[in-house]
Design goal:
about 180 residues; alpha+beta; Hypothetical Protein Pfu-838710-001; eight-stranded antiparallel beta barrel; 9 strands; about 30% helix
């Protein structure tokens, strides 16, 4: 099990700005897809506690991640899974005690992201196109090691490319909300 602190800054962008940035950074051939499978209890205990539990499929690799959020970043714990183990967990749920969460959880929803990244100043900028339950959105994420320096660099990036800051909602919340909309129809 591996633990780290993730410091990231995000903003929603338009499809046009996404396409422009992919071209500006010459990243067309580097886009890859990943799928996040989000887990929770029937009562959404994790969501209500501001915790995210997901299995991410990236290529042929699977990683179980728990994320707890704070004002200065997200604390993440990771466990690598083999394919059979991951698929069993996605289909049948699992005891989340294996990652320090005292609940039995089931797959609630999923979100696919087409992602590309490039170094920028002292961090990495990601351009994401996310698809989930008939919705598509576009987002920039900027990951850094220092909150203070990252905030300045992110603002400079937005200014340089004339991008208005539009607060981004976590991918897990977007997927949960869209899934609930479908369930309520």
């Amino acid at each position: 099990m591996k633990t780290n602190i993730e410091i990231e800054f995000k903003t929603f962008i338009t499809k046009e700005k996404y396409d422009y940035l992919i071209g500006q950074f010459d990243l067309e051939g580097n886009i890859f897809s990943q799928v996040n499978y989000y887990f929770d209890t029937a009562n959404l205990d994790l969501l209500n506690a501001n915790l995210v539990l997901r299995i991410r499929k990236k290529g042929s690799f699977y990683k179980l991640t728990s994320k707890s959020h704070s004002d200065n970043g997200a604390y993440e714990t990771h466990i690598l899974l083999d394919e059979d183990e991951a698929l069993n967990m996605i289909q049948n749920g699992f005891d989340a005690n294996i990652i320090g969460i005292n609940h039995f959880v089931k797959n609630i929803c999923a979100l696919q992201t087409d992602r590309v990244s490039t170094p920028y100043k002292d961090g990495v900028v990601f351009f994401d196109k996310s698809s989930y339950y008939g919705k598509v959105d576009y987002e920039i994420e900027y990951e850094v090691d220092s909150y203070k320096e990252g905030k300045v660099a992110f603002k400079a990036f937005l200014d340089e490319f004339d991008i208005p800051y539009v607060p981004s909602i976590r991918k897990s919340y977007r997927a949960y909300s869209a899934f609930k909309e479908i369930q309520n129809k």
